[in-house]
Protein 1
Amino acid sequence: MDGNNNFEQLLQVLNSSSFVTMTDLKGKIMYANEKFCELSGYSQPELLGKDHRILNSGLHTKEFFKGMWDRIKDGQVWTGEIQNKKKNGDIYWVQSTIAPIFGINKEIINFVSITFDITEMKKAQMTLIESSRLASLGEMASGIAHEINNPLTIILARVSLLKRKLERNDKPDVIKADLDIIEKTVYRISNIVSGLRNLSRDNTKDPLEVFQLKKLIEETQELFKQKLRNKDISYEFCCPDNIEVKAKSLQLSQVMVNLVNNSIDAIEKLDEKWIKILIEEKDNKCQISIIDSGKGIPSEIAQKLMTPFYTTKGPGKGTGLGLSLSKKMIEESKGRFFYDNSKSNTTFCIELPIPRKEKIVA
């Protein structure tokens, strides 16, 4: 396997999952992959030699783009959300990461942009805000840049590293190891985006279903793990294998995200900051406990927690619907949602039925 084949493998991984362009130092497009052409509506001949102003929707200010260019010309990576306009005039949103490519003498020779279409997430965000459905989901949608910034940075770092390895004609197995990391990271981004899209859709008419609880929570936690790291909050998840519950899976994910976000808001300024999700079986029921390092909620406030539009958060930080909707969602799954005032730390509990398994008669 030679260097060219390795580079083609790298392009194949990126081209199959994202929209990729490369420009010269003046911002003129030198390369645009097929997915980018499909998204923008422009053919390669129409794009080559042009700059990204051909996609300008008019939403962003000159200062916005100046800040972007100042950063990448300084040799740094820029990440942000951009509203673009297709050839036919349709508006779309992308999450874009732009990075300089360095030559052998460490001078900037090109810029590469790797973007993901987040139009549906932006639409979902607006729908959530307008309908006041679980305000925390609106926060997750608007903060998606933080969730995928780290994996995108990993990809860009590996791309730059691979370029140098190819120039040195490193061994194929060394190149393949980097390609494997890039592929795994791409799948992680895909899971985050897919999870948020599913979480944001209307699922009120979904049927009850039997599913593996551990797997669901492992997928859901991808939506708040980065936020926990950003706030320097330690996190623990403990769940026995093979516990099945019967519920509405997406509604349970919504409730979990809402509760963890509430905990983050409550403890982010404490000296001791941790959140635990513990799962245990009790009397043919499964209990999910979301516990944080807070020292509990005063009884006069705890009595009002499930009341619609009641909130202890500051202006603009909550609608007061999160807990009342969480309670309603869990009850739709024939479960119980409550605040456990018997614990020394702040604890919210979800009880869900465990489906009965038919006994096999020998």
Protein 2
Amino acid sequence: MPDDDLFYTPASELAKRLRQRQLSPVELVQGVLARAEQLQPRLNCFITLVPERALSEARQAETRYMAGQPLGPLDGLPFSVKDLVNTADVATSFGTLALKNNVPAEDTVGVARLRAGGAILIGKTTTPEFGSGPLTNSPLFGSTRNPWHLGRTCGGSSGGAAAATAAGIAPLAVATDGGGSTRIPAACCGVVGFKQSIGVVPHGQAQDVIGNQTYVTPTTRVVADTALMLQVMTGAAPIDPWSVGLRTHDYPAAALDPRDLTGRRVLYCLTPPGRPVARDVAQAFQAALRVLEGLGATVEPFDGDGFNVEPIWRAINHTVWRARFLGLVERSPELFSNTFKRQIASAAQVSGVDYLEAMFSRTTLFRRVQALLEHADLLAMPTLTRSALPLEQDLFADIDIDGTALPDLRGSWYPWTMLLNMTGHPAVSLPMGFGEDGLPLGLQLVGQLHGDAQLLHAASRFEAATRWHQRRPVLMD
């Protein structure tokens, strides 16, 4: 088959070919590494590649296949890891010059489980400093570009993960999501970004694990591959109390369930009051709702009043960042971008009372979403209010939506993603079409708390009905 067909083959299909000996792990990993090196000058989506280690593990996997030894569910499949996520003996810089030589002693839980399942790490993908923004750039590596248009951002903060996945470099990517950091770049790059329910994948790096609103997540090109990753990464771990006591699910079976959405009720809202949305996004969203109806779902609007969440999220999130990173910034301010330093400085204005009031508001938001989902199976909204922003976009500058300059990039561009980090509900971004500029647009579906399997089923049915995931960016001249 043509090389591009191999690189865009779903991981679930690659696994079958490996088991049938139609493809060797060494051949697959060699091809993926070559593609990564070929595309890196254009996309700049990796901070680190580990070819020697990856090929060594591929040879070990090949031995297991040839000898008929027991195989893991992901045996021989290549994957990437966002550079916020600890990887044993592989540099994890957190996207910052301050930690460019940091080498963890062990994998974080999700990565350890993927490797135990036979997956092969090929490298670390780019992220802004400590995952601190929706635009993937940093003094450490520069800017990461969107495979669909090199003059546009890939989103963030898991921008490298989404760009590499969209470019066919590896079928599986570990990302993170603290306010939309998996779903934003997924929407920008036309891939699947899944933020699971809190606790489904144990979080071993959160310092405030009780108040945690960040997630270690899968990014893939198709929903079935997300389910495959999630199945391996999930399960209780004593380091994360939210994971303890959760029952297991068969996520791949849910994603492959051929039944339609008859009997499902979907509540939708285009945007919270006062938040504009681009014409092409509104049109694509209406078309997506018709697809859901065509799949048998009942589709009804809900009132977005009371969901202006950015100030609440920022009071919590930036206070956490200030507590974690202020010492580093004060010791070596020259190592950090002005954008990162400005965000850390802004949290000085948030008092202890302000922080706790934001946490009280987080509880209110949880109850509001719960109330909606008491009478519905899913919520639907656009992931972003417009397509990918220009590569040179500044976090603190206005963004353009249909010729109108709008302040507050976070609240204006992704008003719906931060909400689900604070409430803990599962949410997925998947392609819902292309904008007037030819760039991908994303649909966000939200499921009931711990209803991850049902959400994957609905996302898979939408994907199959639309086939937007079959489009590929043109990467070579």
Protein 3
Amino acid sequence: MTSSQILVTLGGLALSVFVAWFFWFAPKQRVHAAVGLGGVQEVAITVKGGYSPDVIVLRCGQPARLNFTRQESGMCSEQVVFPAFGKNAHLPEGKTVAVEFTPEEAGEFDFHCQMNMLRGKLIVEG
């Protein structure tokens, strides 16, 4: 093996490790919902290549409103699904769409796009 082949192989390996870390092991941004008028927990979520923030902390038993604004045109991000809460919403590009529900039990609950490629997590505290 020549030195240039070794360098290319090592570079590819380093890039693969970085990609794995970025998508699976990097620390996630965690946001606590702000309590607004009427005791409703609210969070604004931007949809652009993923959900930002993608980890949201809510209080159990308090109504929640998650305001999604989609800033891309990819088909994957057209819909958000909350399987544990039986909720989903169509997200038109450039519009803000509210998803409202009351989390009744503590735990961690996933949400995702219709193709399960974009993912987020709700952490409901008791």
Protein 4
Amino acid sequence: MHPRLSALAALRLTDPDQKVAATRATAALGATDSIATAPIRAAGDDLGVPGRPERPERVAATAVQKRSPFTPEGRAALIHSICHIEFNAINLALDAVWRYDGMPEAYYRDWLRVADEEAQHFTMLHAHLQDMGWRYGDFPGHDGLWNMCEKTKDDVLARMALVPRTLEARGLDATPLIQAKLKRVNTPDALRAVEILDVILRDEVGHVAIGNHWYRWLCERTGIDPEASYPALVARYDAPRHKPPFNLEARSRAGFSPEELRALTDSRPE
């Protein structure tokens, strides 16, 4: 099967374990087979996108109950929330592969690799959650990541600007703060979560870097300035604003320019 159509098939799967297996197989296929860049999109092909299980219950971000990581259930809820983000991240990477015709082969390979790593993240977190006595779906989750995918489905430039280099970049900022709380808890399950988050943070720097690369590539192809265009895209698609504290070191490694980092540190939350 064409790797991009294989990505669509994986994207439509609703069972998390089946989606992980299909995603990893698709990524392996894309790493060894050529990826034809001829258009593959067809009318009505977004039926069943994205495939998601009945649980977790999807609620507004403001309705997700805050729990203390200093209780076992609170830690499970925290791990579940990250697990949910990684499940959505599998879908958004597969969607980036399938949805956009007309991109270079390297673009599709990059996003297949991201999908594969997100599947690995989900697997690690879900195994840890099960070791704690819970499963994916046992707590509610919100749809923030996928909502932005929906908003940008007709514009690959906006997708690159507002999913990897905006929403996923927020994960670079948040992860060290979560790890610091878990280290204070200092139980075996909390310290294991810190180790898993080390792996995720390392990989997510690369994912944001891929988003930065293709955003700048698309801006150059279109003949627009990436840094001047970004605030307009944030406003047009009502993307979340950046809020401190910022992980400037990780953002720098992910390809944000010194000017962009200065703009972050000069900004104030609204």
